[in-house]
Recover the amino acids of this structure.
């Protein structure tokens, strides 16, 4: 349930950011939803698992994992959307950074 | 070719993630919140950067010391007639059983009022001193409409076998307050000796429930069983190592360190704290300002990249328009 809540919240935040930035491509929205369904629960699972496993696990590791997610989402977006016009890395960075920032203070 | 490279990268990333998920879980370790950092400090409270060997020597911040049936400096705990003392390896009493309670922690969490077989942690001899509870006074704290009535704390005569916090219900009879323990293990009625004032009696009429507990002092004893450091101002005290001990003033408070005279050498500020080994300890600090600064940096980055994306989009629109016109 916690995973589902995080996933839905992340998708809402990320799609809102994309919409606010002015993107209207349906493919981008759909890809982001699917990519999030793939990556978000996995990330949360890894975070929880590492958190239980390592005493040294801290905020810095979360940041590193988030960077990894940005890269993965960028690569997956690149695979799905073969458009050279869309700044996919920037999009991946900005949506993940926003959801991470909101998640930090929730 | 580029597609193949991306594919390989994705496979590598997923292998890494898979490896991370199959690491065995140590479920008994309390997970730290994500807004804290671990650092190493010296006895002045300054941050130090130890090498790998020093880090290994310091170990974790969570204390996992079995209290029962294990000898520390040649002594182990033993209980007789409801009181705790210390015996040596020949089963001879070194410190007579006169302490009503010991200090125990589970998974780094303090269980000051619990004494169960899972108790790990504090009442062990280390550097000739052991943390202990002493001077127990059984008391009853009453609750009135879910608020504790602090002035209605009575000293009660209590059964020696009583050892747990128990929910109690009370009634007034004359000038005595009856307390009935509701647990099956400890049935019985206990009476206060303190007379009731009119105000108290009024409050008692509406009394619903209260708590039975033992009021202790805590401190350190030496191997003669004498209290050598009175640490009553603290709620949690840990064994000495390297001449200092981690202490905190409330169960949810922050850890600081005291020396063998009981003097504070590092002010309370850490979420968790380890023993000092070779002048170094591992402590958990709250991110606090770091989190704010990080958030500000991230927010600035988000704004800058948003502006950059918007500019890119405008440029592309213009390019598309020019192409169409051509």
């Amino acid at each position: 349930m916690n995973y589902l809540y995080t996933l839905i919240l992340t998708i809402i935040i990320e799609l809102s950011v994309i919409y606010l930035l002015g993107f209207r491509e349906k493919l981008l929205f759909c890809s982001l939803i699917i990519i999030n369904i793939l990556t978000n629960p996995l990330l949360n699972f890894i975070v929880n698992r590492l958190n239980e496993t390592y005493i040294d696990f801290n905020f810095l590791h979360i940041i590193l994992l988030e960077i990894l997610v940005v890269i993965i989402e960028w690569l997956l977006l690149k695979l799905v959307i073969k458009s050279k016009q869309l700044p996919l890395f920037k999009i991946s960075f900005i949506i993940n950074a926003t959801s991470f920032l909101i998640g930090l203070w929730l | 070719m580029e597609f193949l490279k991306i594919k390989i990268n994705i496979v590598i990333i997923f292998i890494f993630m898979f490896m991370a998920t199959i690491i065995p879980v140590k479920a008994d370790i309390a997970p730290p919140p994500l807004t804290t950092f671990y650092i190493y400090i010296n006895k002045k409270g300054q941050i130090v950067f130890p090498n790998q060997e020093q880090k290994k020597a310091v170990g974790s911040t969570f204390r996992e010391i079995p209290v029962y049936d294990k000898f520390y400096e040649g002594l182990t705990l033993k209980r007789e007639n409801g009181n705790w003392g210390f015996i040596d390896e020949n089963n001879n009493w070194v410190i007579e059983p006169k302490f009503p309670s010991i200090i125990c922690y589970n998974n780094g969490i303090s269980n000051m009022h619990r004494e169960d077989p899972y108790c790990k942690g504090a009442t062990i001899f280390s550097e000739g001193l052991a943390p202990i509870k002493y001077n127990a006074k059984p008391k009853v704290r009453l609750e009135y409409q879910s608020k504790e009535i602090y002035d209605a704390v009575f000293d009660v005569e209590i059964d020696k076998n009583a050892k747990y916090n128990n929910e109690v219900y009370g009634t007034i009879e004359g000038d005595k307050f009856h307390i009935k323990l509701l647990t099956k293990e400890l049935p019985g009625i206990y009476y206060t000796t303190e007379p009731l004032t009119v105000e108290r009696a009024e409050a008692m009429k509406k009394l619903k429930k209260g708590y039975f507990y033992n009021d202790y002092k805590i401190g350190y004893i030496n191997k003669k069983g004498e209290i050598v450091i009175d640490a009553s101002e603290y709620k949690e005290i840990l064994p000495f190592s390297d001449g200092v001990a981690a202490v905190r003033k409330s169960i949810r408070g922050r850890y600081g360190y005291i020396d063998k005279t009981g003097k504070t050498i590092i002010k309370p500020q850490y979420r968790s704290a380890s023993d000092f080994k070779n002048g170094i300890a591992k402590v958990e600090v709250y991110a606090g300002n770091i989190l704010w600064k990080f958030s500000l940096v991230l927010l600035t980055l988000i704004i800058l990249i948003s502006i950059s994306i918007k500019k890119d989009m405008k440029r592309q629109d213009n390019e598309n328009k020019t192409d169409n016109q051509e």
